[in-house]
Amino acid sequence: MTYLEFHLLFLLPPLLALLLWSRPRPPRVWAYLLLPLIALLYTTPWDNYLVWRGVWGYPEGRVLLRLWYVPLEEYLFFLLQPLLTGALLLRLAGSPPPPGPGVFRVLGGGAWLLVTALGVLLLALGGKALYLGLILAYFAPVFVLQWAFGGDLLWAWRRPLLLGVALPTLYLWFADSWAIREGIWWIAEAYTLGPKAFGLPLEEMTFFLFTNLAVVQGLLLAWHPEALRRLR
């Protein structure tokens, strides 16, 4: 199976089904469509660096073409994943709740700041800690900003936050594990710590957890009127 066929099997059918189920309507559609573009721009340099370092890669014959170090299908993935996760969240997120206690802005921002520091430490260690360090150091600062800005809003919206992250993450863990077994892409053991679940490295599990977390938290903040008032 090729990487493009992976999209046709694992991403496009559930995405179309979720869009039909959720029936997205204004005003939430603008953020839903804008976020994949932001995700693509943010992840492109990070992803190219990982492939250049040999943290992960793609066998010949499994991809159509490469732009810099990354295949075209990978860029499509960074557009399709936020659309898939966001389509489910469109259904899960009800009316915006009142803000929670403001202390969650401090607690959440502080906790993610510690995760960022851990990521920097792992980067300094390098070797088998490199992949996990790259994930934590690159994505945790986004969560610092999200929680420092609207941790009270995210806490108040915690049910769709938890479900909106957990369900697509579990599904993508299964799809990723299948793709690795099929040889569509590979993960270098030299840059991973070793623990696995169902054949999936800890780092890959963290990657999908963090990217879905970024999508869900970003959309919930964009959809909350209080967040828009704070921006003004």
UniProtKB/TrEMBL annotation:
It holds the Pfam family Lycopene_cyc. It is a multi-pass membrane protein. It comes from the Bacteria. Keywords: Carotenoid biosynthesis, Isomerase, Membrane, Transmembrane, Transmembrane helix. One of its GO terms (biological process) is carotenoid biosynthetic process. Pathway: Carotenoid biosynthesis. The keyword Isomerase applies. It is found in: Membrane. InterPro entries: Lycopene_cyclase_dom. Residues 3-88, 131-215 form the Lycopene cyclase domain. One of its GO terms (cellular component) is membrane. This is Phytoene synthase.
